[in-house]
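User: For my dataset I need records formatted as: sequence, then structure tokens, nothing else. Please produce one.
Assistant:
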Amino acid sequence: MIANPQARGLTPDEYLAWEREQPIKHEYIDGEVYAMAGGTLAHNAITVNLISILRSKLRGTGCKVYATDVKVRVAAKGPYFYPDLVVSCDERDHRATEVLQYPKLIVEVLSPSTAGFDRGDKFKFYRRIATLQEYVLIDSEQVGIDCYRKTRAGKWELTGYPDDVENEENPILELVSLDFQCPLALVYEEVELPEPSSQMTGD
């Protein structure tokens, strides 16, 4: 993300009004706005795959899937983020016109430039959302998904796919918050992952 020096010190309402007029998306943290970089084709394909899978599964359940153009508000003063995928089962979100506030599941597809923030500070912000039950990070450069689940005790536990599942040859992704399972391969179906670098392969 890149800070915009011409839009500093904005209140949340000022940010929302300003953002409506912008040609690109900006996230908002503590009065600062940050332009969002475009994603890779792999990033886009993974997002489209998961949206397609979840829409079919959630049809008629009262839960809805929202894609990358939808903002999520963490608290009244922000931050505001644009996750790659959000699922909300809250009627208050279904009546909203601009911002979601009560997500059950948030998914971020990782890019090299944003992975550290998505795993670190952004997750700290997301954990403030009382309704959030799962936070999913999907690698767009190799097959791998980290799923953080909130326990009944309010703690967050990590399950990695395929590393932490029994059947590593045909791993199944599980989203407990949605009572959902699917082969990990479907998330990466027809996704062209980048070739490992020569440094990584030892060539």
